Structure formats: C-alpha cells, structure tokens
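Quick illustration for those who missed Monday's session on complexes.
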Amino acid sequence: MMMFQKAITLKKTPKMITYAIKVNAFMWLAITILLLSSMSSTVSAQTNKLTAERQHELYNMVRQDCGSCHGMTLKGGLGSPLLPDDLKSKSIDFITLTILKGRPNTAMPPWNEIVTRNEARWIAQQLKKGAFK
Ligand code: HEC
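Prediction with heme C bound:
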C-alpha cells in the first residue's frame, strides 16, 4: 500500500513541476509582450507618427472646428486665444489633456471621440509652434 502511494506521488510530482514551469514561462512571455507593447505606444506618443493626410485633416479641423470658438486665427473668441504666446506657460501634457477631456462647465467640449491621444498631442505641439496661421 505504502509503495503504491509513493509511486503515485513520484509520478505526479514531475508533471506538476513541468506544469508550473510552463505556466511560469507563459506568464513571463505575457509580461514581456505587455511591456514591449506599452513601450512602443509610449514611443509613438512621443514621435507623433501621423500620416501627411491625417495631419492635413487635423489641420483643417483645428482651423474650422476649434476656430469656430477660438477664432479662425486662434486669437480668441468664445474660447480663449490659443496662440503660442497665450500657451507659453502651459505644458504639452496639459494642453493635450484639455483637448481630450474638454473643460467641464465651460463651452470647451471633449474631443476624445474624434482624435486619439497621439493626435491631441500633435495638435498641442502645433499650437505651441503657432502652426495654424
Ligand atoms: C464650443 C466652443 C469650443 C470649441 C469648438 C473648442 N473650444 Fe477650446 N475652449 C473653449 C472655451 C470656452 C475654453 C476656455 C475654457 C475655460 O474657461 O477654462 C477653451 C479652452 C481651450 C484650451 C485651454 C486654453 C488655456 O489657455 O488653458 C485649449 C488648449 C483648447 N480650448 C483647445 C481647443 C481645440 C484644440 C479645439 C478643437 C479640437 C477646441 N478647443 C474647440 C471653447 C471651445
């Protein structure tokens, strides 16, 4: 009886270990993939890889849609002026967030269903540069 029990435990143990190793390896693979994908999205957020066509669309959107409140030349209207001098003290991150989330209790709407974070960041950078003249 004792022998029989021992045989079972001996037989089972290696299997459990290989199983544990497999699970572990899979977990590390998953973590690596997650890390790599989050790294690549950070990189693209920094480099703003937008096609020329999309940049053109966004450029027109800022002139027309944002311009309807902020003024065609972004000198201000219902919305505050958005020229480089006006945004001097504001960070790219802050402007990006304002574009994505809007300003609660003001006329500034959120644009997160129309532009991606990367695109909002691109717009913020262009605003800081005064690219929408
Ligand atoms: C319906 C009108 C309206 C539209 C359209 C609009 N905005 Fe605004 N926006 C405002 C108002 C009003 C404010 C000022 C909010 C406040 O009082 O804080 C504002 C504030 C901002 C600010 C913050 C400026 C600062 O000095 O802090 C940014 C940046 C901005 N808008 C960008 C945009 C962009 C980019 C678009 C187009 C994608 C856009 N807005 C479209 C009304 C609008």
